[in-house]
Amino acid sequence: MASAPQGPVDTVVLIHGLWMTSRSWERWATRFAGRGLRVVTPSWPGMEGDVEQLREDPTPIAQQRIAEIVDHYDRIIRTLPAAPVIMGHSFGGLITQVLVDRGLGAAAVGIHPAAVKGVLKLPLSTLRSAFSILHNPANRNRAVPFTPDDFHYAFGNTLSREDSDRAWQRYAVPGAGRVLFEGAFANLDPNSPAEVDTRRTDRAPLLLIAGGADHVVPPTVVRSNAALYQKSRALTAYHEFRGRSHFTVGQPGWEQVADYALDWALRAAALPREQTVASETPRP
């Protein structure tokens, strides 16, 4: 059984999501580093190039698979001298949960996380956000461009169109079709890479954060994801920020989300692993 980390946690690993790169964490990384933490922001495997390079040649994006992404971060985390806080946004939040299921991390936060296997909620806004990829089965093996219109609906719906377009220009890359299909059809795949053992008690504390205005992963999805853990005695918590879109890591007010996530994780990492906090884990 895993034990609580010894001493203070001094490292945070940030995992980006679909349609993004590690650049999406630039503000969070600076803020966390300002608190004296080591911040590690590795890209998905093969996606180390900047946004402009990946738009010009999205081949590395088309090659992404959930299992390979998880293994990539697994190797990185195991090289660290001590268990870190792991935070992931969107599909990075799903990857975070799989890594926690492998026994990694001192504490973990899924920020508007893509759902693990077992979540049955599929709101219309989620389908519309993913339509550019899911409407064509051939996109499974492609990197599909994310237009400014796509971004404004899926990520920038709380921003002015001008601000949304600026965010798209700086951060958005084509979406990995295979990753989205694997996530969308996880409940039909007996060997889904999005499956986790939600009953485990020997895992790190886990916080799932939702945004009230998120079109990609609405609060109903995140609550359902959190509720899967209700039979685990390990600490699981849920928190919702009103008015936050899927671009919560860059939307004005991101500091409040970043500070809440980090403060919760550092406190939780200092607790004994086995905790019962049923009141914080919503039921479907």
Order the strands across the largest sheet as they lie in space: 2-1-3-4-7-8
Share of β-strand residues: 5-15%
Terminal-residue CA separation: 29 Å
Low-pLDDT runs of 5+ residues are 1-6, 275-284
- Which radius of gyration do the C-alpha atoms yield? 17 Å
Report on the structure:
There is one protein chain. With 284 residues, the protein is of the alpha/beta class. 37% of the residues lie in helices and 12% in strands. The protein has 11 helices and 8 strands. The chain has helices spanning 26-33, 51-56, 59-62, 66-78, 91-101, 124-134, 148-154, 161-171, 177-184, 219-227, 254-269, and strands at 11-15, 38-40, 85-89, 107-111, 143-144, 175-176, 206-211, 236-241. A 6-stranded parallel beta sheet has the order 2-1-3-4-7-8, sandwiched between helices. α4 packs across α5 and α6 packs antiparallel against α7. The longest helix has 16 residues, at 254-269. The protein is globular and about 45 Å long. The chain starts with 10 loop residues before the first strand and ends in a 15-residue tail after the last helix. Mean pLDDT is 93; it is low at 1-6 and 275-284.
Describe the structure concisely for a colleague.
With 284 residues, the chain is α/β, with parallel strands linked by helices. It contains eleven helices and eight strands. Helix 6 (124-134) packs antiparallel against helix 7.
Keywords:
alpha/beta, 12% strand, single chain, disordered C terminus, 11 helices, 284 residues
Helices, strands, pairings?
Layout: E1 11-15, H1 26-33, E2 38-40, H2 51-56, H3 59-62, H4 66-78, E3 85-89, H5 91-101, E4 107-111, H6 124-134, E5 143-144, H7 148-154, H8 161-171, E6 175-176, H9 177-184, E7 206-211, H10 219-227, E8 236-241, H11 254-269
